Amino acid sequence: QVQLVESGGGLVQAGESLRLSCVASGRIASFSIYGMDWYRQAPGKQRELVAGITSGGSTNFADSVKGRFTISRDNAKKTVYLQMNNMKPEDTAVFYCNIRRSIYWGQGTQVTVSS
Predict the structure, then answer these.
(1) Are strands 48-53 and 36-41 parallel, antiparallel or unpaired?
(2) Contact predicate 109/7, CB 8 Å
């Protein structure tokens, strides 16, 4: 089994920043070979892809977060990060990490941005 644990969520005001972390553990010896993605789900909306990073470090972002969010990884720590800057109320959601194209998801971390 593989476990993903997100952390770093919280309540911030518009314009502020947060950094989310997702730590992988369990039967995942070669974390570095996996692409990793961050998704979010706002109340009443479908889960959407926010950002992704390949094993080689290439990144992609949803249009709504380009220029504000960055994604990075530390393979030695089996951790992927999502740095969120200049946050907006519409960023309010539960954020999840996922090993790309796998069944493994974290439990999510709540992010709330007040106006």
Answers:
(1) antiparallel
(2) yes
How far is 63 from 87, CA to CA, in rounded Å? 14
Compute CA distances 44 → 48, 92, 98, 104, whole Å.
12, 12, 21, 23
Q: What pLDDT digit, counting tens, does each position of 36-82 carry?
A: 999 999 999 999 999 999 999 999 999 999 999 999 999 999 999 99
Q: Which residue has the tokens 């972390």?
A: 21
Please report, rounded to a whole number, the percentage of residues in the chain having pLDDT higher than 90: 96
Q: Are the C-beta atoms of residues 38 and 99 closer than 8 Å to each other?
A: no
User: Residue 5 pairs with which residues in a beta bridge?
Assistant: 23
| C-alpha–C-alpha distance, residues 35 and 98, integer Å | 9
In this prediction, residue 27 carries a pLDDT of 87
How would you write 45-101 as a 3-class SS string?
Answer: CCCEEEEEECCCCCEEECCCCCCCEEEEEEHHHCEEEEEECCCCHHHCEEEEEEECC
Max intra-chain CA distance, the chain: 42
